[in-house]
Amino acid sequence: MKHLICKNLNTSICFNYKEIGITYCTLTNATNGLGWPKISGEVFNGRTIDWDKFFQERAKEIDLIKQSTPRRECANCQQIEEDEFIDDKKIHYVLLSPWQVCNSDCIYCLGHAQPISPKAKNYNEYYQEFIEPYNMLEIIKDMINHNVLDKDAEIDFAGGEPTLYPKFDEILNFFIENDFKNIIIHTNNIQYSKIIEKGIKNNAVSLMISIDAGTKKCHKAVKRVDSFDKVWNNFKKYSKARPKEYNRRLCTKYVIVPGVNDSKKELEEFIKQSKKNGATQVALNVYNQLLNNMNYEENLLKHLVDLSNFMIEQAKKNNIPYTLFPNISYVYEKLNIRIP
Ligand SMILES: C[S@@+](CC[C@H](N)C(=O)[O-])C[C@H]1O[C@@H](n2cnc3c(N)ncnc32)[C@H](O)[C@@H]1O
Ligand code: SF4
Ligand code: SF4
Q: Which residues line ligand 1 (CB under 6 A)?
């Protein structure tokens, strides 16, 4: 039977950095900008999670949504829909976002901090501010021992820049060695990782790479670091590592920032570079703050649809699969235009 549900709440766990901690929800509610508070001290004692209590607490929240009396954080959330759901007391989606440090400085990104030199006097204190205060790998192992992590679960690394996270290699390797085949890594691709390469060779790892430009000049304007050549060279190496049976995704992504990279020339070059370097998919998005702040100004919406239509046309022309993020689909919806 169908009723109101949130698939994200019903299936996920999110490991976040210091103040946010571990949460059920991995998203922000776009209608009120609220994220979820950390799971209660009853459930997580700072070291281990009591899984029975975890699912009991989750079931209560699922019920609140079902009864149309969701908690404040979930009110009017875009993720609530009518569908069927049977709680199998399992986790199907793990978001690993345990730190904020990044070697890029994207103009649109609010959630990052710049790295400092390991020789800096306040190095340890600095990093404590941006890193998770618990042992994530031990909790993951415990999840597996208690049989609460679905074998086909999606394991999603984000951040900050995950490839710089000190335990990245160890944790990614753990998932690969334990035969998880649905691992996705969000990265700016500046730092090459032998373990990512291993995951690609094992047909276990997909990449979602934030490129955001077609030319070197524009890439620098968005990322605010000089990394265009490095990013594409690394991409070529990953692409070469693909086995014949590779059926994961090497996806390049473009977040439109009006006034910075919102031109057809950039999108055209982005698709060309993606094709040339072996991407198996391209993705388009528009930065979140824009939709929050613009009050849906019609000319801007039309401009975004025009750019999106152009990207789709170029992707088709270059015979490369494409995907649109919900922000972009939302723009079409606002203008009552069908996505081509
Ligand atoms: C926070 S980043 C972390 C992973 C990695 N550093 C990267 O750039 O892919 C995760 C994803 O969120 C996207 N992102 C960050 N800020 C955004 C924003 N304001 N609007 C839309 N997407 C954003 C990035 O492009 C990236 O794909
Ligand atoms: S309804 Fe929205 S805010 Fe609430 S758990 Fe689901 S995604 Fe998160
Ligand atoms: S690379 Fe990722 S984390 Fe870093 S600034 Fe850009 S979007 Fe943010």
A: 102, 108-111, 158-159, 161, 186-188, 208, 210, 253, 255, 285, 287-289
Q: For residue 155, tell me if it sits in a domain.
A: no
Q: Which atom of ligand 1 is nearest to the CA of 109?
A: 16
pLDDT, tens digit (0-9, with 9 covering 90-100), for 150-177:
999 999 999 899 999 989 999 999 999 9
Tell me what pLDDT residue 134 has.
87
> Is pLDDT larger for residue 182 or for residue 98?
182
Residue owning the nearest CA to atom 6 of ligand 3:
106
Q: How many Cβ atoms are within 10 Å of 294's Cβ, its own excluded?
A: 15
In this predicted structure, the answer to whether residue 291 has a pLDDT above a threshold of 80 is no
The one-letter amino acid code at 295 reads N
**How many domains, the chain?**
2
**104 CA to middle of ligand 1, Å?**
11
Domain range for 42: 3-89
From 74, 89, 104, give the residue that closes a domain: 89
CA quadruple 178, 91, 154, 40: dihedral positive or negative? negative
Boundary of a domain, candidates 62, 89, 116: 89
Q: What Rg, from alpha-carbon coordinates, does the chain have?
A: 20
pTM: 0.94
